[in-house]
Model the fold of this input.
Amino acid sequence: MSVSAEPRPVPEPGDPDLPGSPGGSGPAAGTQPPRPLVVTGGIAACAAAGSGLAVLVTLTAIGWITAPHVGIGTGLGGVLRTATLLWLVAHHVGFTVRGAGRISMLPLGLVLLPGALLVMAGRWVVRVGSVTQLRHVGYAAVALAFPYALLAGALAVASRTAVAVPSLLQAVVASFLLALVAGGLGAARGLAPWARLAHLMPARPRSIILGMLGAVAILGLVGSLLAAVSLAAHLPEVRAASDALGPGLGGAALLLLAQLSYVPNAIIWAVAYTLGPGFAFGAGTVVAPTGTVLGAVPVFPMLAALPSGAHPGGPAWLPVLVLAMPYVAGVFAGVVTVRIAPTPMIEAAPLWGFAAGTAAGVLAGLAAAFSGGSLGDGRLAAVGPSGFQVGLVAILEIGVTAALTAAAANWLILRRATRRTSKSSPTPDAGSGSDPGLGSGPWPGLAKTGVLTGVVDERDDADGHRIYLNPWATAEGEDEANGEGEDDGEGEAAWSAQEPPASPDDP
Done:
């Protein structure tokens, strides 16, 4: 489908209106035909990768100058290799350290840097590549993601050292997926605003997606508050860990940036805590609302905010309140799903609510899987929440609650609408002059289909293709047969000036 944000048409070579052609009086000189989408995507991929590398090289050079004892690297070559490794880490690419093992517990905050650059690159590809159709957004995203993945693979090979070796396969796959998703979102946003893109979707998928986003927003808000409260409660321990490191002024700034990059991980871990499974920080450990079992923890200020003790501290009602938050998210998802698209089929409303809750649970499980990893081959080989456990528990808690809430909310909506209709619009009589098939009053579609206006009828499979009879066709034919009609020209004009009756099923 087309959208309004269409670029200015580009003249074709040989167009008589093209400047310079014989008799041409077209647009101003300097107009060029659009580049092929493959070339545009390659240019955008190089620009996004180069911009991200430039930012990380600058930060790495500042750290190398102000805190040389951190071990960033020796010389300019070491700084460049370290910045390239950080660029790969920002794409969630793990690496192997000699003598330590696999490192895959990576900061998700760094993903925001290449993600934002890829969104901008996707919008640029749409604008420069003359993409005007929404169905062509996928082509623009692939044209951006493919060269971006090739660049990531080349950088993974170039950044290998005797100490750290990044995964080549993970670099290609992770960068391709990130560029495909972020670039596709940017390309879609380049065509139209988000509100208009949402209204282009059918009501049912839009209700499920918005219900999922509502549940995820509540989980994220609760996780953020829980992480902030835990950090504030353990502020003396956090300060003691910072003082033990003694990073200095420059090192303190780098340490602060490192902690900020791990903030999304902390929020996801707090969400796993509220769902019940919690998370682990090493073999044989668990951090959950029912209790905590921890071993030795690395000296990192944010880790000092982890709860300790066999039983959670604070009042007795606090764990109950924390465990109730996923059910609140499920209630919100069910209400949003039904408010956007109620259905006259009572048994269908729980299914759509469960679909929204299931989507939220799957998204929570994926986030949990990416937020953890390993910090070597020893005791810290398992760090973070289990994606499978978090996803399964979230589907059961949020999905079932959303299904029950959607059923109740849908029943209330239909009941209230039926009461209002029965009070304000009695059923018309056959002789009242109104068409009983069309209905009347504020709910014109009720008498004909039994479905209230604004309600998605799940039984309707006509896809908008219906045949309507012309109510004047018989009368016109009889008048022409009896010779009682007006002159042909006048009669045709008179009949064409009349409008057929509006149907409630018209889109």
In short: Residues 1-30, 429-449, 462-468, 485-507 have pLDDT under 50 and may be disordered.
